[in-house]
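Comment thread on ticket #2218

A.B. wrote:
> Attaching the input chain for the structure job we discussed in standup.
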Amino acid sequence: MIDINTASADEIDALPQLKGHGYEIVRYREERGRFEAVRQLEEVPGMAGKAAGLEDAIRVG
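C.D. wrote:
> Ran it. Output below, let me know if you need it in another format.
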């Protein structure tokens, strides 16, 4: 399990469900601040409809 608020792009990309989205997730986090809930990943470009079921793999600490 990784913390989406502290993980690097490479750590995020290591999760099969998020492969290829690490850079965008980190960029979004740096521009807009910490994620407060997993569902906020839906707001990241390219992530619409892909955050469902990620609660077992990531946390927002």
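A.B. wrote:
> Thanks. Noting for the ticket: The longest helix spans residues 22-32.
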